[in-house]
Amino acid sequence: MNNETRPHSSDVLRPRNVGAAIKRTEDPRLLTGRGEYSADRKPDRLLHVAFLRSGQPHALITRIDTVAAQEAPGVIAVLTAEGIAGDFKPVIPFSRMPNYYATPIVPLAIGKVRYVGEAVAAVIATSRYLAEDALELIEVDYEPLGAIARAELAVVDDAVLLHEEAGTNVLISREFKKGDVVADLKAAAVRVSGRFEMTRKAPLAMEPRSYTAEYDKRRDAVTLYTSSNIPGIVRDAICESLDLPGHRLRVVAPDVGGSFGSKGSLYPEELLICIAARKLGRSLKWTADRLEEVSSSSQAFAEIVDADMGFDANGIATSLQADVIGDVGAYSIYPWTCGLEPVQVVSFLPGPYKIASYRGSVRGVATCKPPTGPYRGVGRPISTFVAERLMDLGAKALGLDPLEIRRRNLIRAEEFPYRIASGIIWDKTGFVECLEAAAEVVGYEQLRAQQADARKHGRLFGIGIASYAELTGIGSRIAVAPGMPINTGSETAKITIDSTGAITAAFGVASHGQGLETTLAQIVADDLGARFEDVRVIQGDSDEVPMSTGTYASRSAVLGGGAAKQASRIVQHKIKRVASHLLEANQDDIEVLDGKAVVIGTDRAVTFKQVAKAVYSDMKTLPVEAREELTATYTYDPINGTTAAATHIAVVEVDPATCFVKILKYVVAEDCGRIINPMIVVGQVHGGVAQGIGAALFEELVYDDDGQLLSASLVDYVIPSAPEVPAMDIVHIESESAVAGGFRGMGEGGTIGAPAAIANAIADALSPLGIDVSILPMTPERIFKLMEQTRLNARGKADE
Fold it and tell me: Is the pTM of this model over 0.85?
C-alpha cells in the first residue's frame, strides 16, 4: 500500500498534533477487552427482554394469548401493544416536505404487522434463556392481508395498502427540475440511457443493536445505554414520547462496535425497554441476535433508476433526467423520514459535473420489509453508480476515453462555488485534481496498453473510473434529510480545566469506530495549547452537553472539530488572562503551549495545574475580578457545510470459467480538506472501499414474493473477506475548506466511489462480449447468466 500526500494548498505550517499520524488512544482498551459496550452493563437485579416477532409480512393481529407465557418460569411480565397503550405517545418522524406521509413509530405492532420481523410482544424474564422459552408459549392469530414485496407492484392501482390512512403506498414523492431537459435531450448529439438498480443491503455492524435501561428508583429516572450514534436525538424523542423531562432520562452511547448508519435512528426496542423499566421499576437489557439484527434493523439502498443523459458532439454533458422508485420498507424512520435515502439519490445525481438541464423525480414506496435508513453514503452510492455508468456509456458512444470525458465535464477550480442542477452548492474542492492524481498514480496510459495486450490473449480485463462529490458537515441551512423540523446542523463542545489542571473535552458527537477520541483530542491540544496525552475526550452522553445530536453525514470532524477549536480558544484566552497576573506580563506577550503559559522569549512559565490552583484554590493569588472558571461551551454551525470529493480507479479481471471478479489494482485520490490524522483517514478509506466492494460484488438481501427474507444469515448474506479486499494506493489532496479548521468529512467516501468504479471496470472487462452492467451486486451468478444469454443470442444469430 502506498499512501501519498500531495502538497497542501497553502504553505501554512501545520500544528504539531493536527496532521500527525498519532495512534488511536481508544485502541489499547478495545484490543485488550477493556472496552465497555451496552451489553457489558450489569446493573443490580437485571431483567432480560426477548421479542416475539411476526412471521407474517402483512396481516391483521386478531388475537394474542399470553397467559401461558406469563406463567412460565422466570417470567416477570409479558407486554403487548394493548398493555402499554397508556405509557407512551407514538413518535412521528415529521417533515415539512409536501407529498409525504409520516408513519408513527410504536414499541410493538398495533392492530397489524407490516413486515416479517416486526415486534409483536415482549417477554421480560430473569434470564434471556427463560424469556426466549416463554416466547414459544405466546399464541398469535393473524388474518393475512397480502404481501407487497416489490416496490413496482406497490404502486399499481389495485395494490393492497400498508397504511390505509395514507391512502397510497407512495409515502414520499419529490421532483427537482432545471431547464428544459426534454428539449436538450432531443437536441443532444448522443443520448445514452439505462435502467439501473442497487439491491437491498444489511449494514451488518460487528456489534448488533443492544440496549440496557438502568432504573433509578430514587429519582424515578432511567439511564439508557444504547449502541447508537445519535444518543441526543434518542433522548429527546423518548422524553417526548414518555412525557419525561430530560434530567430524568440520560442516554449514553458507550463503546459502539460499528454502525454504518443502522444505529443512527430511533428504534421501537429503545422505546419499549424504557417504558418497561419505568413500568416495572427494574433495569432491563436486550441484545439482538444476528437474525434479529439482519431482519429488523434498518436496511440500505433498494432503488431502481431509469435515467438518460445527453451529450453534445464534443462530449459535454448537456442534460440528465431520472425517474427513481425507492423501496423504503414498511415505515418511516425517526428523525430522518423515509425520504432520506431515495430523495438524496435525485439530489446528488448530477454529482461533480456541469449539466445544464436536469429533471430528477423520485417516489419512496412502502413494502413489507424493514425500513430503509441511513447507510454509509446515503443515496450517493446509487446516484454515483448511475451517473458514472452514463458517463462511460457516453464515452463509448462518442469514441472518447472514459478519463477524457470526465476531464471535459468536471467542475473546475475557477467555477466554484458551483450550484449543480438539483440546487446543491459545491464549495471549492479538488474534483479535477483528484481525477488527475488517481490517473497518474494508477498509471492509466500503461494500464490501457496492458489491457490491449490482455485482450489479445482472451482475458477479460477492465478498468473503471468513478468520480463523486458529497456534502459533509452539513450546517443549519441545509437539512440532513429534506424538511426535517429538528436542527442537526450544529454541534456543541465543552472544554473544562478542573482544579487539578486536568483537561476534559465533552462533545455531542458519538463515535462508533471512527477514532473520535483521538482526532478531537488532537484538535483540542493544538487550539488550547495542551499536551495531547493530557486531554480526555467524552462523547456520546446526553448529560455532558446541553444539546447533542450525534455522528452521521460525515459531520464529526467538521462540526465537532469546529466546536472544539472555538471552545478551546476561549479557554486558552482565559488561561492567558490568569497567567498575565501570575507572571506579571501582558497577556499579548504570553503563548500557551504544551500545557504551560509562557512569556514569549523567556523561561518564565506557569503550568495548567498552577493556573487552575490560582483560579480554584488559592484565593490570595488573584484579584477577585480575575477569577474565572476555566471552562467554555461553544456550539458551532458551519451554515452550509463543505464538499468532499474523490476519484476511484479499479482494475479487475473476470474469470470466464468461474465468473468471479478479481480486483487487481485499486487507487483512491480523495480530498477531505486539512487532514487531522492521516492514519485514521487511510483506515476510513480502507473500510469504506471494503464495504463498497461488498455492495458491488457480494451483498444482497433477497426477499421472495411473499416478503420472506431468504438471506438472513451470514451463510447466505455474503460479505467480502480479506482476500477480496485488495491493497490500495491512496492519494490525499488537501484543499482547505472554508469551515473552521479547513476540515472536510470523509467517512463515507469509500462506499460511494467503490461500487461505481468496480461496476465500470466489470462493464469494461465484459465489453468485448457485448455485456453491460446495470445492477449491483454483480455476483458470479449474475455474470454467468449474462454470459450465457450472450452465448444464446450469438447462437441464435448464427442459426439465422
Answer: yes
